[in-house]
Amino acid sequence: MATLNLGSSIPVPSIKELLSQPLAAVPLRYLRDVSGDYPTAAASPATLHFRNMYDQLIGHEVCDESLKDMHKKSQEFFELSSEDKKRYAQKPGSLEGYGQAFVISEDQKLEWCDMIFLKAIPVHTRTLEFWPQEQPQNFREALHAYSHDMRKTAVSIIGFIAMALGLDSKEFREAFEGGSYDVRMNCYPPCPEPERVIGITSHADISGITLLTDCGDIPGLQVLKDGQWVFVEPITNAIVVNIGIIMEVVSNGVYKAPYHRAAVNRHKDRFSIVTFCYPTKEFDIKPAKELISSDSLALYKSFTNEEYFQSFYERTKLSDDGVPFIDTLKI
After folding, report:
1. What is the DSSP string of 269-308?
2. Would you state the pLDDT for residue 38?
């Protein structure tokens, strides 16, 4: 299976490096009008558990030990020295490794987040030079087990989504059983001006579905609901399930890929692990034919898998023009 090319990123200093010395003020490159983060102003914090296209899954197939082990290894990685983490730094032309995602210009506003992005499944797509080996101990083994558990969970969820749409559950399960799974581990260090920075800017995921686990009880994930930003209150060992743009297109808009972002806080590190789940490269990104009729026209264009990702990659090269990626896919 071909490796998904999701772009590259210009190297920038990590937040942990920035905080290694007393910080009198947050550098201008990180400051922004958070209230203007697309597409509307943030609301006061509220809790959200089971809402629309962003739900928390409890009683899933992933054992608590697998979750705890991966959470522990992820935190241990970010606690390594800057020099040790830089051994796994992103290289020119690649998104994989330790750094920040989609930094395309020297004057671009930066996110208050350090991350390591790794291709996990299929196994042959792994670039092991980016996989920590000696420290943290057994990191590779933990991620191998975790990513396979996440695939099992994703395949089950996709099967239920297909059934709810009246589609062939087996076809969708097989497409995601043989698909790609990328894992992004995030560290959001405390910030002296959290109201003026953003951990991750608002966006909708380009995946089929995305599975997120919080490594602790600190709220940070926000979802746009009814024009307001609401916090998703972490539930111990729950998996947050997010519909991605691929499934919005396939469902012809029945399911929507929600806009979400990450906020930061003043006092403590927050950690999360995100698994992006994609179908096989033979899976075309288009509205399912069973959902199209004279009374229900296709709302989205049809793309091969390669065309879809190329279209996204081309969008990352552009300065922000305010047009969401999903809108470029609509008829």
Report:
1. -EEEEEEEEE--TTS-BS--GGG-BTTB---B--B-HHHH
2. 44
- Structure confidence by residue, pLDDT tens digits, 164-180: 999 999 999 999 999 99
Q: Shortest CA distance to 146 belongs to which of 64, 221, 216?
A: 64
At 145, the amino acid letter reads A
**Contact of 78 with 114, CB cutoff 8 Å:** yes
H-state helical runs in the chain? 15-18, 64-78, 82-86, 139-165, 169-177, 245-250, 305-316, 325-328
- Report whether the peptide linkage leading into residue 122 is cis, meaning its omega lies within 30 degrees of zero: yes
pTM for the structure as a whole:
0.86
Question: For 298, left (φ over 0), alpha (ψ -120 to 50), or beta?
Answer: beta
Structure tokens at 101: 């995602």
pLDDT of 92:
81
Q: Tell me: the pLDDT tens digits for 90-122?
A: 988 788 999 987 776 777 888 999 999 999 999
User: What region does 268 belong to: left with phi over 0, alpha with psi -120 to 50, or beta?
Assistant: beta
Asked whether the predicted pLDDT for residue 29 surpasses 90, the reply is no
Tokens in use for 268?
Answer: 């403590």
Whether residue 184 contacts residue 123, with contact meaning beta carbons closer than 8 Å, is answered with no
**CA distances for 99 relative to 14, 56, 105, 130, angstroms:** 7, 28, 15, 11
